[in-house]
Amino acid sequence: MTFHAQNHLRVVKGIEHEKIGHGLVFGKFMPPTNGHLFLFNFAKASCHKLTIMVCTLEDEPIPGAKRYEWVKKLFPDCNVVHHAAEIPQLPEEHPNFFNIWKDSIHRHCPGEKFDAIFASEDYGYNMANIMGLRFIPVNTRRDIVPISGTMMRENPMKYWDHLNPVVRPYFAKRVAVLGAPSTGKTELTQGLAQHFGTTMVGDYAEILLEDYQNNIPGYDPKTMLNIGDVSTVARGQMAGLEALLPQCNKVLFSDTELITTAMRSQKLFSQVPDWVADASYSQHYDLYLLIKPDASASKETVMDYKWLHGELVRRALPFMEVFHDSHEGRLKESIPYVQELTT
Predict the structure, then answer these.
(1) Tell me: the pLDDT tens digits for 58-72?
(2) Gap between the Cα atoms of 116 and 20, Å rounded
(3) Sign of the Cα pseudo-torsion (236, 240, 241, 243, in order)
(4) Separation CA 140–CA 122 (nearest Å)
(5) Residue 130 CB-half CA count within 13 A
(6) Residue 11 lies in a domain
(7) Long-range contacts (CB closer than 8 Å, 24 or more residues apart) made by 294-298
(8) Is the residue at 6 inside a domain?
(9) If pLDDT is split at 50, 70 and 90, which confidence band does 121 have?
(10) Which domain, by its residues, includes 50?
């Protein structure tokens, strides 16, 4: 048969359309990797409607609710379903494995009718056959984005660039710098953030008081500061941390935290709001850097240091003391401690 340049396409009407009706993707996504995002976007581009089913078990290393939340944020225009049933996970675990999954999928998606399953695993053929659907393989070679969830979990710092910003806060390391006033706490936090090319959370108490003094005529913190301001400071410190986590590069530094907030409240008002005290126990940092004052420090500075040291020990928190008198010395001493967290 001779191929002619003109009239070479024999167009036939009525053979499907450019998009499938309703597609289904399901998996653990622990965590969602760039490979998973390729799968989701491929399926989304192929369908009029896409359901992404996040399948989780109670004892898995990353909470199922967190993975469901990630996928919902990543694909808000898709039908994201949380499948939390405790059923067999591998075909060899049960002779009726695929039918069990078929029934469970339908229970979690009542009334939904699917047209195709998209997957990067060969199991998709069996699952699609059992459900009476078409199977659309997506990069079953696994060579387009060769990063697995296991690799991510084992060394998220190494594969940081492959983590989506929505997922990064979960794996980011948090380092708090503690110290009495005028011991170089802010300077050290800034120096560490600059060295590691990342972001830092300021001391919200200082930020708030500066703003009050600049914008409220006659404001005097010695007479006008009250116990309600402690809650404002604590909320601001927590909010700043959560707001900057998605922007950090592997590690986020915090110039003070809620243990210090509680100490300040106790000193100023002889009491601490109960929720602030509770939150100071539930906050999570991977490392605390406690600046030890030099020999010329005041008695009050030394007392603050001893109180903070005692709290870190009493709460069994991971901390290192920083001894050097100069900023350069404190920075040089602190860098290796943080480096251990980020490699």
Answers:
(1) 999 999 999 999 999
(2) 8
(3) positive
(4) 7
(5) 16
(6) no
(7) 294/325, 297/180, 297/183
(8) no
(9) confident
(10) 20-152
Q: What tokens were used for 136?
A: 């659309």
What mean pLDDT comes out for the span 201-209? 93
Sequence letter at residue 231: S
Q: What is the pLDDT at residue 4?
A: 53
**Is 184 domain-assigned?**
yes
Contacts 24+ apart (CB under 8 A), 218-224: none
pLDDT above 80 (res 123): yes
Residue 145, pLDDT score:
65
The reply to whether 180 and 148 lie within a common domain is no
- Whether the per-residue pLDDT at 144 is higher than 90: the answer is no
Predicted TM-score of the model (pTM): 0.84
pLDDT tens across 234-287, in order? 999 999 999 999 999 999 999 999 999 999 999 999 999 999 999 999 999 999
- Greatest C-alpha distance within the chain: 99
Question: Could you tell me where the beta strands, DSSP code E, fall in 234-336?
Answer: 251-255, 287-291, 319-322
For residues 138 and 181, membership in a common domain is answered with: no
∠ at Cα 226 (220, 232), nearest 5°?
A: 105
Q: Which two tokens stand for residue 58?
A: 């109670």
Tokens of 223: 């007479």
- CATH assignment of the domain containing 275: 3.40.50.300
Q: Look at the chain and report how many structural domains it folds into.
A: 2
